[in-house]
Design goal:
Elements lengths: L4 E2 L3 H8 L5 E4 L7 H11 L5 E5 L7 H6 L2 E6 L25 E4 L2 H13 L4 E3 L15 E5 L7 E5 L6 E10 L4 E2 L9 H5 L3 E10 L1 H5 L5 E3 L4 E6 L24 H11 L6 H9 L4 H8 L1 H7 L12 H21 L27 H20 L3 E4 L3 H15 L5 E4 L3 E2 L21 E2 L2 H10 L4 E5 L3 E2 L5 E2 L15 H7 L1 E5 L21 E5 L3 E4 L8 E5 L13 H13 L10 E2 L5 H10 L7
Helix pairs in contact: 1-2, 4-14, 10-11, 12-13, 13-17
Length: 610
């Protein structure tokens, strides 16, 4: 077996091993090969005519759109993820094929296609997508066929996903190309095996064979699949990389200031081109990119080594470690380039709040009411696992878990990229922060979480968000009423297709609609929908939802009299949604308590969700 090419830098590696017109896969493990992605853009530019597959297009992957290197992208998401999902103007005309043709999938169905490709299977079987618009427009790739074991039923088959080359960023590799990674693993090594020609890899450090064999339990991709590699310190930046200190390599944190800078630039006058010039074409190489970050910023992003725990004091040691991680995150923001965007200003507060607390904002009220609904579902139905979509939905799930725990009821919080049983310590509100991995009970990948812990687990409860939701519970997170692209499914379709769910969505007549403009996720498993003024629940029989609880506007005292609560609740539904939900039997939702607000603000000390 020939040894892989060892190149001087990422640009040389791309020139040698990637060809115009290739199908290039950007592996999400869950850190991305961002240095290699920039190199693709520099080397090929608009002449690349690539097909690119990746779990999601966000942050540094916006370079694909800004460079024109990709003719087609296959993914489950296109937009921004930090601090919460939102549309990016680069993709407003995605439905028209600009800036590239986009083939949208759900996260699990996408990975199932990779697994089929890796195993040489003719098809993948999925329980996702059915009954939604994600299943449409995929001739030759998605097939609905009669289920041989269930007469009258259908099963969904997916063609395997087989890129020409897969780009990966790892912690370390030896000269034979064996690549070590540290969990969680996101999509894992499936794309490495699915690639027709093989893997093109960057790593933090190339080490000798003997050194790598001492950590062979961390080798995820075998050298037999690797075409070439190069060293690229900080090759996943601005994303985090967990290293476990393998081969003495320091891990690093998500660079939130850099992520803010990308978003601000894409929403600015030049629609991202100023960021692209500064950080992709301007440096001309990865070495210059790292130099431009500056020594102070690089040092602030470094994950601190955990202090040795005192005997019998594990909790204190863990708390101190989280506090140090959060301190480093703040230091990284302080070291950021001047162009970095400041955190959003908190909206005006409500006129009154619990004693001892600043009053709750509308968004905080939504999160608290959502947390109550989730906690009630857990108590009533015995769910043991919470999987939340990103945004106010994950904050509601986190708060619900905290409130349940304080009442002696334990429930496991999981994240779709591979974290199980984690507590978001340290004030880091980003759902996919790898800092949360430190306190997780188990670290795995997308198939284990979305498959094993959700689709195959009858005790899982999903907590989702919605850009639009109709009275059947069907969710749209893909296209606005004007046709503009929103973000896509991510793992939401997989969750809603397979398990019971609670939806957390702020009230608006444009959000609570009579019929969604695009069916991203099915509604048949939605048990409750929570707004900032109350909770809708499915009746025991019949279609749609009824308003079960209503929280009076704190600025408008509730009038006395029989039926007054139902009358005002009905008025709120009519003016703040486009639903016709019944209100008979509605009960008053108690105001947000000091305990709830204090717990929420402990999770969100910087006010990202105010």
């Amino acid at each position: 077996m020939s040894r892989p090419l060892i190149a001087a830098d990422v640009d040389e590696l791309v020139r040698a091993l990637v060809e115009p017109g290739d199908h290039v896969h950007l592996a999400g493990t869950p850190s991305r090969p961002n240095a290699l992605t920039y190199a693709l853009c520099r080397v090929f530019g608009a002449g690349g005519h690539l097909t690119v597959s990746t779990t999601a297009v966000h942050s540094s992957a916006h370079a694909l759109a800004l460079s024109g290197v990709a003719d087609k992208v296959i993914a489950g998401f296109a937009g921004d993820t930090y601090p919460s999902p939102r549309p990016n103007p680069l993709y407003a005309e995605l439905h028209e094929g600009r800036p590239f043709t986009f083939e949208a999938w759900s996260l699990l169905s996408y990975v199932q296609r990779l697994i089929a490709g890796a195993q040489g299977a003719p098809y993948a079987v999925t329980g996702s997508l059915a009954g939604t618009d994600l299943a449409e427009g995929k001739p030759g790739v998605l097939h609905r066929v009669p289920d041989p074991g269930r007469p009258g039923e259908e099963v969904t088959l997916l063609a395997p996903l087989r890129p020409d080359v897969t780009l990966v960023h790892g912690v370390a590799a030896d000269e034979d190309g064996n690549i070590a990674l540290v969990p969680p693993l996101g999509e894992g090594a499936w794309a490495a095996y699915a690639a027709r020609r093989g893997v093109v890899a960057s790593v933090e450090k190339i080490v000798g064979r003997e050194e790598l064999r001492r950590m062979n339990d961390r080798v995820v991709i075998p050298g037999q699949r690797v075409l070439g590699l190069t060293e690229a310190p900080l090759g996943a930046h601005p994303q985090a990389l967990r290293t476990g200190r393998l081969a003495g390599v320091d891990g690093y944190l998500d660079d939130y200031a850099f992520l803010d800078e990308i978003v601000a630039s894409c929403h600015g006058e030049e629609r991202g081109q100023d960021w692209y010039r500064t950080w992709v074409t301007g440096p001309g190489s990865h070495a210059e990119y790292v130099r431009r970050l500056g020594a102070g910023r690089r040092a602030a992003l470094r994950v601190p080594e955990p202090a040795p725990a005192a005997a019998g004091d594990d909790y204190a040691a863990e708390t101190a470690a989280w506090a140090e991680v959060h301190r480093c995150e703040r230091a990284a923001v302080a070291q950021a380039a001047p162009a970095a965007a400041a955190p959003p200003v908190a909206p005006a507060a409500e006129p009154a709040g619990p004693a001892g607390c600043a009053p709750a904002t509308r968004q905080e009220r939504l999160i608290v009411l959502g947390a109550r609904a989730v906690a009630e579902q857990v108590r009533a139905h015995g769910y043991d696992t919470l999987l939340a979509g990103i945004g106010t939905s994950h904050m509601a799930a986190w708060l619900a878990a905290d409130l349940l725990r304080s009442g002696g009821h334990e429930v496991k919080v999981v994240a779709e990229l591979g974290m199980y049983g984690f507590r978001p310590e340290g004030g880091d509100t980003f759902l996919f922060s790898l800092a949360h991995a430190q306190g997780s009970e188990m670290l795995a990948g997308i198939p284990e979480i979305l498959g094993g812990m959700v689709a195959a687990n009858p005790r899982a409860l999903g907590v989702l968000a919605a850009a639009e939701i109709d009275e059947s519970g069907t969710i749209n997170t893909s296209r606005g009423a004007d046709g503009r692209w929103l973000t896509g499914s991510g793992g939401a379709n997989d969750i809603a297709s397979s398990t019971d769910c609670v939806v957390i969505a702020p009230s608006s007549r444009r959000r609570y609609v009579t019929e969604v403009g695009y069916r991203t996720s099915p509604g048949h498993r939605i048990r409750a929908v929570v707004s900032d003024f109350g909770r809708f629940e499915r009746p025991e029989s019949g279609p749609g939802f009824r308003l079960a609880t209503w929280l009076p506007d704190p600025a408008t005292p509730l009038a006395d009299g029989p039926g007054e609560l139902a009358r005002q609740a009905a008025h709120t539904v009519a003016t703040r949604t486009s639903w016709s939900a019944a209100v008979d039997g509605v009960t008053a939702e108690k105001p947000v308590t000091e305990e709830e607000l204090t717990a929420l603000r402990a999770l969100d000390p910087d006010g990202r969700f105010r």
